[in-house]
């Protein structure tokens, strides 16, 4: 097939090795599932001519649980790497939906639990939230099924203070699952995770954790179109926490203030502009008391995040040019100090505002800026992909989007 064929085999071999690693398969396990020898796997790794055969590629794709196109189409391969794939999301669903995810009573007979290791569990939870705030959603997709299982197993096997610590990490794991599912646009998965999370958080008695879990439940509620319930839950949680504020530490203050922000987004999606204003004013008061931007318990709460939510709420209310005006109030240095996920989310909201105002060029430039900053936020997040699709459709007949937008749209599977 000449040089082109060699290049194709090299790309296919690299894709096979990547998905072997991502699926956690050793060379031996991969060989066994294919019914091949280790030497055959090594030949494939080196770009053997067998990779020219469609029948071989189909067999490999089946074992790796990926679409065949991932091994032969560079654009599809790139898109699949950016985000958690359906196999990983299905594994998260399975981990949450099992009866033994709710109670140890239903754990299958003979089931061998992972040995509890609180230090390792803590590191894994921290890594997951670090990946989330870096918009590295593909890494989280592979992490969550094992993390859920390990955290549940630790709760079941430990007691006393160790069990309370395990419950804390399990609650944060459920919240991470909820947030990731919402990014991917899977509202039902988010709701299951949020529901699990609030139950475990209540068992810890940790007010900060409970407040954070309540915020995630509210987010999941308005994702499944229960906006009024979400807003009521936020008000209930705020009322429950108010008596604790006199002695609140920075973590509890951050969780409390973030409740107002989440409530303001729920109100915005219900078109309650006055309530949006009031909730965000309360959030800014809490942020002032906190004394500046912070990231206690991955809340990213502070004055800058309040301003980010102001722009986001306006975009939700079809504010158009008002979104850009609100964004102009944010100090660039303060914005740049926030995690990538927060900054890229803000750029996505700003692009929505530009598009609502008919400012296509600025919307396009902003989306490209977001993609450069945090590709996962543009290529995995359902809302941002929707904005990109709307931008592409907004060009009149006979006019094409900029080449960079066309390329980005194709990368995420949008027809141009």
Keywords for this entry:
416 residues, 74% helix, single chain, mainly alpha, 434 Repressor (Amino-terminal Domain)
Question: What order do the helices and strands come in, and which of them pair?
Answer:
Blueprint: H1 2-22, H2 27-34, H3 38-45, H4 54-64, H5 69-72, H6 74-82, H7 86-97, H8 118-133, H9 137-157, H10 160-184, H11 187-204, H12 207-223, H13 227-241, H14 250-269, H15 273-290, H16 303-316, H17 321-327, H18 332-336, H19 340-356, H20 360-373, H21 375-379, H22 382-393, H23 403-411
Helix pairs in contact: 2-3, 7-9, 8-9, 8-10, 9-10, 10-11, 10-12, 11-12, 12-13, 12-14, 13-14, 14-15, 14-16, 15-16, 16-17, 16-19, 17-19, 19-20, 19-22
Short recap of the structure:
This protein has 416 residues and is mainly alpha-helical. It is built from 23 helices and no strands. Among the domains are: 1-82, 434 Repressor (Amino-terminal Domain) (Orthogonal Bundle), CATH 1.10.260; 84-205, no CATH class.
């Amino acid at each position: 097939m000449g040089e082109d064929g060699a290049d194709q085999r090299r790309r296919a071999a690299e894709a096979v090795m990547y998905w072997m690693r991502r699926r956690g398969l050793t060379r031996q396990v991969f060989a066994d599932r294919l019914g091949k020898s280790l030497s055959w796997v090594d030949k494939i790794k080196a770009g053997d001519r067998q990779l020219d055969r469609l029948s071989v590629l189909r067999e490999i794709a089946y074992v790796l649980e990926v679409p065949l196109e991932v091994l032969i189409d560079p654009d599809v391969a790139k898109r699949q790497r950016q985000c958690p794939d359906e196999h990983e999301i299905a594994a998260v669903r399975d981990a949450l939906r099992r009866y033994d995810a709710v109670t140890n009573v239903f754990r299958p007979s003979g089931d061998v639990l992972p040995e509890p290791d609180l230090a390792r569990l803590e590191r894994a939870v921290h890594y997951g939230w670090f990946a989330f705030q870096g918009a590295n959603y593909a890494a989280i997709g592979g992490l969550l099924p094992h993390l859920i299982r390990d955290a549940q197993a630790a709760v079941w096997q430990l007691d006393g203070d160790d069990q309370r610590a395990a419950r804390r990490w399990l609650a944060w794991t459920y919240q991470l699952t909820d947030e990731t599912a919402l990014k991917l646009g899977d509202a039902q998965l988010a709701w299951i995770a949020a529901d699990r999370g609030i139950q475990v958080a209540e068992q810890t008695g940790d007010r900060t954790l409970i407040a954070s879990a309540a915020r995630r439940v509210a987010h999941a509620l308005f994702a499944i179109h229960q906006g009024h319930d979400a807003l009521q839950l936020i008000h209930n949680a705020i009322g429950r926490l108010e008596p604790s504020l006199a002695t609140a530490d920075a973590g509890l203050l951050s969780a409390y203030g973030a409740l107002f922000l989440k409530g303001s987004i729920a109100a915005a999606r219900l078109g309650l502009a006055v309530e949006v204003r009031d909730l965000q004013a309360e959030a800014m008061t809490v942020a002032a008391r906190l004394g500046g931007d912070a990231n206690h318990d991955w809340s990213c709460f502070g004055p800058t995040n309040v301003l980010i939510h102001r722009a986001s709420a306006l975009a939700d209310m079809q504010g158009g040019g008002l979104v850009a005006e609100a964004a102009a109030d944010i100090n660039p240095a303060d914005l740049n100090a926030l995690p990538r996920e927060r900054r890229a989310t803000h750029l996505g909201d700003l692009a929505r505002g530009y598009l609502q105002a008919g400012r296509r060029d600025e919307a396009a430039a902003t989306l490209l800026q977001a993609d450069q900053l945090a590709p996962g936020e543009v290529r995995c997040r359902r809302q941002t992909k929707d904005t990109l699709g709307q931008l592409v459709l907004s060009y009149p007949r006979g006019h094409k989007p900029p080449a960079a937008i066309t390329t980005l749209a194709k990368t995420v599977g949008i027809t141009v």
